[in-house]
Amino acid sequence: MSIPAGFDELIHPATRLSVVALLAATEWADFAFVRDSLSLSDSALSKQLHTLEEAGYLELHKDGGGRKRRTRVRLTDRGRTAFEGHVAALRAIVEGAGPQAAAETPSGAAETPPGQRHHSGAGR
Fold this sequence. Notes:
By secondary structure, this protein is mostly helical. It contains five helices and three strands. It has helices at residues 14-24, 31-38, 42-54, 77-96, 99-103, and strands spanning 29-30, 58-63, 70-75. The protein has a three-stranded antiparallel sheet. The longest helix is centred in the last third of the chain and has 20 residues, at 77-96. The two termini are 39 Å apart. Mean pLDDT is 85; it is low at 112-124.
C-alpha cells in the first residue's frame, strides 16, 4: 500500500499531531492552555512549536515582557491545509484497512484474521 497524498511526516508524530489538532479548533490559543491541555512541559511544547513554526505551519505572538509575558499561537493557512490533508490521508489509510478492503484482496477472498485458522473439518 502506498502512502496517500497529503500524508505529512512533519505533523504525524503524536505530539505535533495533538498540537495541530488542538490549534485547528481555535483561532488563537495561549501557550499555557496548549501545554496544560496536552500535559507537556514548557520545553517539550516549545520544541514542537519551533519545529512547526519553521515549517510555516504556525505563528507565535508574544505580548508583554518579563513575568507578564504572554505567548499565543495559531495555525497559519498553510498549517491548516497541511493538517486537513494529513487527516484525509489518515482516513484513507484506515478505510483501506477495513473489512471491505480485506474482502477485496487480489485473490478475491478475505484474509484470515491473525490468531484464527481455517478448519477443513478433516480429522474430526
